[in-house]
Amino acid sequence: MDIIVVGINHNNSPIEVREKVSFSKTDLDIAYNRLKEYDEIVESVIISTCNRSEIVSYVTKVDDGIKGLKAFYSGFFDIPMESMEDYFFIEESDKAVKHVYKLAVGLDSLILGEDQIIGQVRSSHMYALERGATGKVLNTLFRECITTAKKIKRETLISQNSLSISSIAVKFIENRFEDLRNKKVLVIGVGEMSRIAIENLLYKGVSEIYVTNRTVGHAIDLSNRYKEIKVVEFKKRYDLIGEVDIVISSTSAPHYVLKKERMEKYHNKERELCIVDIALPRDVDPEINNMEKIHVYELDELKKVALDNMEIRMEAAKNAMEIIIEEAVKFQNWYNCLPVFPVIDNLKKTTKEILDEEIDSLMYRLDGATDKDKALIKIVMNSLVKKIIKKPIHNLKMAGEDKQGELYAKVTNELFSMKEYSCKGKGESYGK
């Protein structure tokens, strides 16, 4: 059994590919139920963000697991395997573990060290946990990688001047217009990314922001906080296209919220319009970019601004990677020891049973011994047994770390005539 990661992300695929395999909230419940049908997939966590669609899995066999997850992607999204094959990102064993750690701290993000990813990783794990899709192995992995990510952010400069996708989007717009103070902006959607964009726009001096959302109540909440914000009904969003200079769109809609045929009707051809689409799947019909005086920018086009802003954090990233390597090795040692933990528990239990039986027999024969003497004898015998099994337990753990746990577990069970227990059984907790 081993840990693998299979998916598609911003490192190896364009946005038009990534959006086809993006999991909506509705998709997730169906996806987890579907994954449970694969015998080779024991545990899974789906991580779906604007830059990636990846599945971390604990599988019976690596090759079968990779094949199963590829088939799952193809079947779930109804995409021919041959059109996806070149875009799959695959990691296994130690590299898969390091990838999850790097992911949580933002080392594999479009924006190095971004703050949002740790929350997305935590939410992805909790969602999988609530649906019974994870177990001892992935629960431990995700808890430890999130703890490590917090440690890295606390001890390094990886998040200094950290920018989110939304912040980069606003900086991108600022680079284009130079001065945003006299610009009118329409923001579509009021999720976290939109709120961050709005905060940045206000900081840059934008004084006129129109906000629209399918659920008008959330937009009204924002307008109550900021006098610069005006709420527009979602169905009237096109009415503002001829008046604004900038549109930032970030919704979770499964389809385009700005379509070319309607834009042609409302767009003022005498006015330049800059549209930044930071949604996945995309909110804006790519054909709109072909319209006169309209410029549409998508996630992949924000990379240059992201690269310009990561220089400060490059050195911190090296320090972060050193911490990740150390913590990933600790997890891998724990994981490799899973076969021996039940044997260690059973060895302790067996020796304790023998010890208790012998102590009872000895106490029965020591009629003249005082209570103090008996207590001392128990302490000495308990200490003696612990010292006798201390070295075998240490050697079992070392064998586990050397990936010989299955062999040593079997031999130990035979030597001590103990019943074999599955490595899924109760064992030592992480870090012991």
Automatic annotation (TrEMBL):
Annotated pathway: Porphyrin-containing compound metabolism; protoporphyrin-IX biosynthesis; 5-aminolevulinate from L-glutamyl-tRNA(Glu): step 1/2
Domain Tetrapyrrole biosynthesis glutamyl-tRNA reductase dimerisation: 320-417
InterPro entries: 4pyrrol_synth_GluRdtase (IPR000343), 4pyrrol_synth_GluRdtase_dimer (IPR015896), 4pyrrol_synth_GluRdtase_N (IPR015895), GluRdtase_dimer_dom_sf (IPR036453), GluRdtase_N_sf (IPR036343), NAD(P)-bd_dom_sf (IPR036291), Shikm_DH/Glu-tRNA_Rdtase (IPR006151)
Domain spans labelled Quinate/shikimate 5-dehydrogenase/glutamyl-tRNA reductase: 174-305
Listed EC numbers: 1.2.1.70
Positions with a binding annotation for substrate: 49-52, 109, 114-116, 120
Assigned protein family: Belongs to the glutamyl-tRNA reductase family.
Subunit annotation: Homodimer.
Function: Catalyzes the NADPH-dependent reduction of glutamyl-tRNA(Glu) to glutamate 1-semialdehyde (GSA).
Protein name: Glutamyl-tRNA reductase
Species annotation: Anaeromicrobium sediminis
